[in-house]
Structure formats: C-alpha cells, structure tokens
C-alpha cells in the first residue's frame, strides 16, 4: 500500500485546555494549551479532523490555542494539518508517544512555531531539510530518542535564532552520515 496517498483522520480526541504549559520545570505563560490525552495516530498521513472533544475556557476558541501537547498517548506519526485546526500555534509537544519519524513535510504549515518538543520517542534520524523555512524556531528538543543519523547541516536554517537545543540521551549521533 502506498502510504503517501493514504490519508486517515483523527475523529475523536479528548483534550482539555489550560492557560499555561509546563515542561521540564519551565512554565510558558500565558500560553493557551490543548492537551491531547487520548488519541491514536498509528498510521502515516493522519490528519486532525475539525472537532475535538473537550471544553474551552470561557471566551476561548481553537484560534486562541498557542500550544498543543500530546503526552503518553499513541502518536507514532506526526499529526498533519495542525495549523488548519490551530492557526496560532507556537509550541508543538509530542512526548513519550512512540513517534517514529519526523520529516519536513510533517512540518508544512507550522513555519510560525517557535518551539518543537519531541522527547522520549522512537525517532532514529533527522532529515537534512527538516528545518528548512522554519526560521522562527528557537527551541528544539529531541531528548531521549534513538537518533543515530543526522546531517551536520540539519540546524543551519535555524541556527541564528536557536536558543535551546537538546539532543541528550540519544543512542549515538553520527553527525557526518548524511
């Protein structure tokens, strides 16, 4: 089966909303965050549908969401179309979800995010063009993955604005392989 042409949809998620996001002792405020607590993205090319189960805070809507957090749930492939559902996203966090890979096309539409957290997953490589056009990214975390292969130039497009990069606790990184 050709996975590039297959498209599945997330039809039911349970999320709750908070006015801040905490990660590793750092609080990002004020950041209206959608926490996805129940989902299953186990097929490539899975798209977010136009509704989620969950109640917004008073006066808030999907347009107000600046961060999305998937944690300890099944996200084996990067969810597509996050920008269409959450147009003002700045932070994407996929933690301990079994994420297997991330490609440049996964980030299409997310060029305005400034923070990408993907710790505790199963990512084995970072493509050379991953951050092409992602000029607003300032914080990137791929801690506790299985990264073995990464080009020495993968961070070149974002190096001027990068203030945090965490690649610790990976198997081994061969910076000259690709």
TrEMBL record:
InterPro entries: LRR_dom_sf. SUPFAM superfamilies: L domain-like (SSF52058). This is CLUMA_CG018070, isoform A. It comes from Clunio marinus. It comes from the Eukaryota.
């Amino acid at each position: 089966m050709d996975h590039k042409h297959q498209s599945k949809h997330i039809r039911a998620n349970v999320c709750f909303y908070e006015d801040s996001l905490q990660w590793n002792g750092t609080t990002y405020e004020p950041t209206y965050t959608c926490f996805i607590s129940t989902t299953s993205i186990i097929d490539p090319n899975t798209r977010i549908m136009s509704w989620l189960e969950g109640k917004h805070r008073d006066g808030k809507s999907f347009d107000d969401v600046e961060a999305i957090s998937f944690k300890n749930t099944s996200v084996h492939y990067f969810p597509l179309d996050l920008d269409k559902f959450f147009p003002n996203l700045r932070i994407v966090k996929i933690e301990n979800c079994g994420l297997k890979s991330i490609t440049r096309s996964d980030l299409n539409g997310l060029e305005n995010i400034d923070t990408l957290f993907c710790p505790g997953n199963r990512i084995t490589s970072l493509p050379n063009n991953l951050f092409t056009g992602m000029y607003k990214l300032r914080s990137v975390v791929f801690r506790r993955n299985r990264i073995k292969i990464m080009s020495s130039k993968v961070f070149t497009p974002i190096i001027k604005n990068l203030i945090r990069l965490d690649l610790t606790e990976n198997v081994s990184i061969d910076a000259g392989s690709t």
